[in-house]
Amino acid sequence: MTTPADTAPLMLFNSLTRSLEPFAPVHPGEARVYSCGPTVYNYAHLGNMRAYVFADTLGRVLSFKGFALKHIINITDVGHLTDDGDDGEDKLEKAAAAQAQSIWDIARHYTEAFWDDIKALNIRQPAEWSIATDYVPKMIEFAKSIADKHCYALPSGLYFDVSTVADYGSLARAATEAGEGRIEAVEGKRNAQDFAIWRRTPPGESRQMEWESPWGPGAPGWHLECSVMSEALLGFPFDIHTGGIDHREIHHPNEIAQNQAFACSHGSGARFWMHNNFLIDRTGKMSKSSGEFLRLPLLVSKGIHPLAYRLMCLQAHYRSELEFSWDNLLAALTRLKRLVMAVATLRGQAAAAEAVEHPRLAQLLGDFAAAVSDDLNTAKALTVLDEVLAQKKIDAGQRLAAVAAMDAVLGLDLLRLDRADLRLRPAAASIEAAQIERQLMLRKEARADKNFAASDAIRDDLVAAGVEVMDGDPLGWEWRIEV
Questions:
Q1: Gyration radius from the chain CA atoms
Q2: Before 237, cis peptide (omega within 30)?
């Protein structure tokens, strides 16, 4: 029987053509996706993590549509400069010097912290995490293969001549040197937009990470890394390359130029280039240069479950700017609680999820499939999920099956979470959960004895300690979240 997921063609916005296009895989039945990963010189902020919620949602939709997914996310542990335009210091080297630590230890620490954030957001593991330093020999071979026709050497390293490939910068729409993809000047460059393939270690300096190459000791350029790893693991052409919208202006055009040179073709390396928009923070605390910036553990320290942030992202289209505010986040947490409570009720009513046979549920599954097939319209898909939960007269097992199918795409972990799982203790709380339970027991005894003055006093003490007492609610209490 044809499933609702099969009936709606998957339409995706291709940044390269600036248009919606039907997804047709390079390899029948497969979907090969490469996502630009973090540079592990610092912790990832919430804006960074939006890119991985988006990429995970894309992967889940591809799986929902029946494709065998091969998703690669890289870890940049070398080569990324403090300015994307071949200017400044290496971010890893700078962090290692500032913290007086081994650059390898710095990379390992921040990689593991990033993986913790990935797990907290219920982002599925990719087929492989490609670590840039593991691929340096392949990067040197890649650079050697294009050097004669497309590159030239300067004292500072090997540079790619963008005039040697067709339509350089078309992804960023940078037709002139003053365009969006402009790169900072380096003395001796032929074109302002030329970029480093290999950065030679300056005479008299030493780096913790450097390799021998035909162009002298040094390290690969940041742009080279993604071209090499995506080709090595997915092959050219592959289906989809994702990243934040900031990559659309310099990094991805440079990847495309390298891919064209390597493959000796006008192909970009990927059929689709997809970009999520920015998370906007009016307080200015999204930037890592601000010191204490907005991170996922900060939300947890305030008692906000990480999946509330995932839901906040899903409530907006990935190509739209999303404004971060604590009010928006708390609203998403409230919505998540309602979803978890509704699904928990279904779980209590049904022995197990059943096959969806009811025509109304089949229609809603079709509506959900149409929404996510329309360039990942998760905001609309969430309203369809609400409709499923509102069908009180339909068998709970069938509704649970419909929810399971939808949550496989949304990734909110609704079939596992309980409301108590969302009750995270704020770091500033002055009372422990066990003490709260003891106080509530004393309050219950006081109420049974009609000692309402004592009961009210206990309640007031709990409120002062940041606890919301909920009479008549099976959960009993929640933390009062102050932001």
A1: 26
A2: yes
What phi and psi, each to the nearest 5 degrees, are found at residue 214? -65, -15
Q: Does 176 have pLDDT greater than 70? A: no
How many CB atoms sit inside 10 A of residue 232's CB? 15
The number of C-alpha atoms within 13 Å of 264 and in the hemisphere containing its C-beta is: 5
Structure letter (DSSP) for residue 126: P
Distance CA 253, CA 172 (A): 7
Instruction: Give the tokens for residue 177.
Output: 């040197």
Burial environment of residue 441 by CB neighbours within 10 A (0 to 12, 13 to 18, 19 or more): exposed
SS3 275: strand
178-227 pLDDT tens trace: 333 445 568 899 999 999 999 999 998 888 889 999 999 999 999 999 99
Alpha helices in 235-325 (DSSP H): 251-263, 296-301, 306-314
Per DSSP, 376 falls in state -
Give the Cβ contact number of residue 315 at 10 Å: 16
Measure the CA–CA gap between 180 and 169, rounded to whole angstroms.
8
What contacts 351, CB < 8 A, 6 or more positions away? 397
Tell me if residue 11 falls in helix, strand or coil.
strand
User: Which residues of 174-225 form beta strands (DSSP E)?
Assistant: 195-200, 218-220
Give the Å distances, CA to CA, from 210 to 42, 199, 219.
20, 10, 5
